[in-house]
UniProtKB/TrEMBL annotation:
Alphabetical list of Pfam families matching this protein: Glyco_hydro_1
Similarity annotation: Belongs to the glycosyl hydrolase 1 family.
The species this protein was found in: Hypothenemus hampei (Coffee berry borer)
Name listed for the protein in its UniProt record: Myrosinase 1-like
Xref: SUPFAM superfamilies: (Trans)glycosidases
Amino acid sequence: VNNRTFPKGFKFGTASAAYQIEGAWNEDGKGENVWDRSTHLYPEKNSNATGDVTSDAYHKWEEDVELLKGLGVSAYRFSIAWSRVLPKGFANESNPAGVTYYKNLIAGLKKYNIEPLVTMHHWDLPTALEDLGGFLNSDIQEWFVDYARFLFETFGDDVKEWVTFNEPKQTCDQGYGSGVLAPNIVSLGIKNYICGHNLIIAHGKAYRLYDKEFRAKQQGRVTMVVDSNWFEPASNSTEDVEASERSLLFTYGWFAHPIVYGDYPEIMKVRIANRSKLEGFNSSRLPSFTDEEKQIINGTADFMTVNIYTSSVAQAIPEPDITPLDPKRDLDIGAHIYQPDDWEKTITDWFKVVPWGARKLVKWISDTYGHPEIIITENGYHDNGTVINDLNTRGRYYKLYLSNLLDAIYYDNVNLTGYMAWSLTDDFEWQYGYNIQLGLYHVDFSSLNRTRTPKESSTYYRKVVTTSCLVDTC
Ligand code: GCO
């Protein structure tokens, strides 16, 4: 084995999410979710686009499974749309057609020995539950456990890798903080923390349910998918190095610390409590876990994950005045977070190509959480969706990121066991609609049958997957 070859058994796959690819938003008994509602009610918040049809995977899943087979991947990460299987969110009323859809998909994958890695919630909460307060209502903990039980019972004999929630930071910060994502509630610094709190406990309770009633028989694993940038210190001053660490703890640690160690990072608790006091709140804006809750959530990740696309710089700022929370200058974190102009950019502000950041981030996760098994659950490159000859852009991005991840495996001793490229096909990209795309396969959204065309990057990825190697001679 040379150091450009992925270890034996390394899992390559691709990732997707129900609302982004399925379409069929109101077909065969599916209930409405918060994304259906947001795109229909607030087109201006969603680039005037909807996921009503998108890449139409609901009807074209067989073709997509063939594409996966063609890539040679051993895993496929997808999500179940809660409101497709439980139209009103509650487990007492299920939708047989929705169940059949996922049963067929799972069977189709297994026929080709492609392992399903299933996300239970990828942002598409049923509106029936949102109308009761969604993630702001602590009852979500029980709604979610009932949903999880339904999924374990219905699919658990075939699904061995479960993800409870995808990118809770975005669900909460953007869904209940900045309001950029559905359900578009604006309450930065307050409701986003309440959302996160309920979500973490919901995760913990679902994990305990699996332990108690399903694990012995089904022998699967349960985790959460957490996203983060790497935050490079602006300088090697102690202050900037600390600002970088704080940024990681407020981003990745917000969710990872509770599910690994049973509580929020100390620095988060201290900073938010102090600031809340100065702001005149009579308790911290960050809720605290009871002892019983701590026990429920402690140790509830069977393996760790990370979605990484890009990196930022973190710079210490003087302890700020108490002014309205500004997402650009995150006062709770106490850092100025930015992406330098001279980093390689793509077509959006959001995104710089920073391959070395991926290596540093997985090393940080490994060091911070006791050398766990880690799977990259999303990584990918976006452009405006018209580029088929993407070998030197998307293909290059994959090569550079994978190369840095190999360095993490061989030189930093990180126990990285899998990698899911985002995404198999072009899709609905949330607030960007169809203006940015990340697929290995192009989708013609103007054609009735949503024709898929391989991009050059799919050929590149196939080569990596089938040889496990990044260079020509391994
Ligand atoms: C997530 C991600 C994906 C996006 C991807 C590319 O929530 O897991 O946001 O759904 O499509 O990050 O933008």
